[in-house]
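User: Before I run my own analysis I want an independent prediction to cross-check against. Here's the chain; please return only the structure tokens and, at the end, one sentence I can use as a sanity check.
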Amino acid sequence: MKLTLTSLAAIALSAHAAFAETFAGMSDLSFDAAWHGRAVEGAVWYPTDGGGEPELFADNPVFQGVDVLRDAPPQAGNHPVVLFSHGLGGNIRSSAWLAVGLAKRGAIVVAVDHPNSTTRDFDLGPGLEHGTRARDLSAALDWLLADPRFAGQLDQSQIVAAGFSYGGWTALSLGGATANRDAYAAHCAEALAISTHCADIANAGIKLADYDAATWNASYHDPRVTQVVAIDPALIWGLTPGNVAALPAKVLLVGLGQGKDRLYETDFTKSGFDELVPQARSVTLAPAAHYSALLLCKPDGAAILADEGEPYPICTDPEGTNRAALHDELIDLFATELGL
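Assistant: Structure tokens:
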């Protein structure tokens, strides 16, 4: 076949398009939340072909930031949506590596700083009102659907509720799971010495029986959610088949660490939660620990946290753990679930 200059140029352009890099755009979001009596702040990450203002997001002396293009124009397409919830005391920065990784793969990721359970906005008492977190993400989805920048670009047949730790429960809750106040209180009474979550509740002088049972046990199911991904989910002890009957057919449970490295309160095997959800695909990643799912730490990160009195091993992974490689595995797991 004879190639003309025009045809060679066309081939070159086609090859360039095929290998063109997708970047992660990012924009802030905010909406009023009557259930909190104040506004909720967050962000949306999305695929973009470029533009916007380059920014190293979430970078600080402890954690390595991630590259985003702030307020870049969204990439055209039909993109799956991920609603992501951070852990108790976390924030939208904690899992920004995941949001950026998924945006580069073609997903649109929405996350919020949940009032009362965020790093610098933390009050354990109201923070344990777990239903408010599900309402936060349902409202964030409303915000996304109403934003004209993303009109016609959202694949509403793929809306994933996802989260880490306490946020893993938020994801399960959005997917249709319901909690059991009395069963969890009974569990904490027995597991006080081995569950850091139960110990934190007790040390704060909080009694789970003081929470309204109807509110605690209510359904916060968002029927728009089509699948769930829960990384080391909390509040999974003492449940029954009835509590998980409304979960969708696609559920992915990801456990971090094995043996002594596995966090007791989020161990869905020991709690029997995985057996309650037979349709779930369960994956355990090791070597790893619970906090390996947070941002990459800088060389002095662990020392800085120790000086600040941080009680948890945020930057200390088990021997042999490669946190960066673990993050890549988690991004691949999400991408597989989304067909990206």
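Sanity check: The two ends are 35 Å apart (CA to CA).
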